Amino acid sequence: MDKKKLLWKLFISTFYLSMFTFGGGYVIVTLMKKKFVDDYKWISEKEMLNFVAIAQSAPGAIAVNGAIVVGFKLAGFMGVFVSILGTIIPPFIIISLISFAYEAFRDNVWISLMLEGMQAGVGAVVTAVSYEMAKDVVNEKDKTLIIMMVIAFLANAVFNVNVMLIILVSILIGLLQSYLAKREGNEN
């Protein structure tokens, strides 16, 4: 596929995903995995897992960060630009339209009920994302990653440890693990 077609397909894909995704970044990450890994086979599951880790660690919205790393992998800086546009235009349009009609929506019972129903759907999608990501980590058969995943879950869910602290500690452990693996490779 030539670069122009790839960029157009990347824009349309990120635009579509962003336009019809409700519930935040973790929901769009699942759909990006389905589209870019399963359907288009542009990237591998392992790459997607790494991209999600990068997107979570970087400041900013996870949907935009995810689009950035996928766009860069596929088409360099032009891919970044196109995927960012595709990701940010839909929410910008939707929020702009809602702001004009906020007074009408604010007290509407039907809109409130619809949004409450969407919360259940978002919960299901986030659960599915967590399951898929955990399954990928377990399939790696890396004991350190499995232990980190379990400890991170328990630290947040049971002991209410701040997520930023968990991310920072995970980054440090990952860097240390990479350093040790590289050092071991150089010694052999």
TrEMBL record:
It comes from the Bacteria. The keyword Secreted does not apply. GO terms for molecular function: chromate transmembrane transporter activity. InterPro entries: CHR_Transporter, Chromate_transpt. It is found in: Cell membrane. Keywords: Cell membrane, Membrane, Transmembrane, Transmembrane helix. Pfam families: Chromate_transp (PF02417). It is a multi-pass membrane protein. GO terms for cellular component: plasma membrane. Coiled coil: none annotated. Its main location: membrane. The chain crosses the membrane at residues 6-29, 49-72, 78-102, 109-131, 146-176. Belongs to the chromate ion transporter (CHR) (TC 2.A.51) family. This is Chromate transporter. It comes from Atopostipes suicloacalis DSM 15692.
